[in-house]
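Lay summary

Proteins are chains of building blocks that fold into shapes. Our project writes down both the chain and a compact code for its shape. Here are two examples, one after the other.
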Amino acid sequence: MKVTVILCTYNRCESLAKALDSVAASIVPEAFEWEVLVVDNNSSDQTRQVVDAVFRRHPGRFRYLFEPRQGKSQALNTGVREASGDVLAFMDDDVTVEPAWLRNLTAVLEGGDWTGAGGRILLEKSFSPPSWLSLNGTYGMGGILALFDLGDVAGELDQPPFGTNMAFRRSVFEKYGGFRIDLGPRPGSEIRSEDTEFGRRVMSAGERIWYAPSAVVHHAVPQGRLKKKYFLKWWFDHGRSAIREGGARPDARRRGIPQTIAGAVPVALRWLLALNPQRRFYCKTRIWLVGGQIVEIYRQRQSSPAKPTNAGSA
């Protein structure tokens, strides 16, 4: 088995070097074949210089590709197409991986029972959330910061893993296609879920994905993300991506507006009346979520009747 680690990057040269150095320090068995494929998605900062410096420190381990078509899904699909491994692992340019990450994430894919695997994503130990933000529980929004922690017990996943810590057999992309290019962040748009949509697509076809809690990455949280404005924008774009992924559920009485809008009024009241700051802000995000759904439905109705773009080619 050969593993290709795919890392797509765009204008994050500050964190990129740490990410690459961390994966270069991976501890694997001597016979373990692996490479790291860096896909530069048209960066305009010092990304190439950073990559060259890391490559000199770790000769023979990395390959570099330049993908001029803007959009993370475009870069991901290029990485999938150009990878030489029969198992593809994914990480982002703003994480650091633990030394045993790669081996622990991909070990289960040596057999024939599992199609993919997802690991644990932890925030940096020094991270301290603001008073209005709950990471877990009823009002938890840790997933927006890429927190993915299902505990210490390994087992089958009932939800898709996050893209910064997942691995799939290459044959999965050949069978089910690549990442949808109408999803995924790009300059001017933070509509995401390209990774979880792929996982849901695979799981809905009956494929099984393993949770590997010992495969750990640490995700840095920039201060710019710890603002209410960022979270509200995320939920608005999440509403849009949900419509793109699943489509609107027509309702004759509401002229095609999703059923969730019917519950927007009581949620708005809870937002206005809640005293707990975490509950209050959580309820506010529900309104932005519905707003994103409405905007995307309207946008689709104003565009041509052609169906949205499906999976990109791997």
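And here is the second example, written the same way.
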Amino acid sequence: MASSILAELERDMAPECAAAFVALATDYFAATRDASGPVSTPHSPAALGARFAEPLPRGGQPAARVVERLARDVLGDCNRLYHPMYVGHQVSAPLPAAVWTESLTAALNQSLAVFEMSPVGTVIETQLVRWMCELAGYGPGAGGTLTSGGTEATFTALLAARSRALPDAWERGVSVAADCPPVVVCGEHAHYAVTRAVGELGLGMRSVVTVASRDYRMDVTALAARLDEARLVGRTVMAVVATAGSTATGSFDDLEAIGRLCEERGVWLHVDGAHGASALLSTPHRPRLRGIERARSVAWDPHKMMLLPLSAGMLLVRDERELEGAFAQRAPYLFHARADREDEEAARVWDQGVRSFQCSRRADVLKVWVALQRYGADGIGALYDHLCATTRSLYDAIAARPDFVALHEPECNILCFRYVGDQSRGDAELDALNRELRERYNRSGAGWITATNLDGRRVLRVTVMNPRTTTTHLDRLLDGLAATAAELLGGRGSAQEQRPKRAADERG
């Protein structure tokens, strides 16, 4: 048995086997080049589940048959992120060179916990972190680590902030502050990663203090009042979390004003820039991040607006020692494996395991490095600008139509809007209509969008993550939504509500 499996392994290493798998990806790229074909699946979870309800395979089968099944049973019902009519969640249509790097990363199978397990990958990650720290305006003492995404990055940053606020917590637990735990202050539109981290750090959800927004950004005056309130009742503020590119609207908090305020109060400022920190690569959009250098830590997801395949997150810290201090434990079998060398300390600081949750750490840095080598920071920045400009064109198109209303001006590639038809319906009726409208439109396969609640109302939400998406596709989106709304209303809409459907029919 073992000898036959070994023979199969050798066959699967041949170029022709690899080419069969790669062809699935290249065929997918080609099939999504235009707007033909469905964007997603019409099938229910139960229907898809029945397709794969089978006994555990005990024996193998030829690679060609596996490839055939991937093509038949998997690809057709996946979300097609490279389809130009997919404008849904914040998951990118990934850069091709980074996609091809994934197979090499898997083949090398390096673990980036310690230098000796991945010598080249560790050095590349260190260099990549330095580049990003320089973009953020950090000095030579800065550092960081790659993460699985923004949630882990924010969790790790708040762990470092907890280490500063409760230096005995690692040994004695958070019970040392049970009577009066420190608080974390964030905006009302902060990502759920913030409250999740506070809960997981053992501080309790009551230790989260939210700040009201103004135009979907943290109100700095309200933040100052919250900090004053905490001081008056004797509560330590462990951290303030600002947002650069919020999930709901893509809005950017005023980092300059918030940063100055936190410096004056001696408070740790963490910036959740998972979505928006990539604006550092853009000349016109970089000013939205003015003041980011005042933050002690920054979360950044290259797998969002740098268009990298999942997953590729990152945490940057102004002083790397504070990050290492958050992980107080030692593991002699790993981090001190070179103790017999005179350069022990120099070797230890290269180890990413001393500043990261993960021990088995995939070398995701390779695809980020390859993307920068292939397209350049300026090239990726140009793609950022392109996605934002395309989203702005949707805002302009909505402004020219009476049947839709935009809820805000887009600051990046995210826009929330609402179908209002002839504007004769009340908010409650429109809430129900917009909810059903999104669901039916997505099931049709013509396109794919998301939705959220904003100001207590159900709204439609678009995130442009595909460079192939053009203004023509977004015009088609609005027409398709209007036509779907007319169907839902059963022809009871006004002439204005019927106009987009007729226009769509005339174009075929």
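What can we say about the second shape? Residues 365-399 form the longest helix (35 residues).
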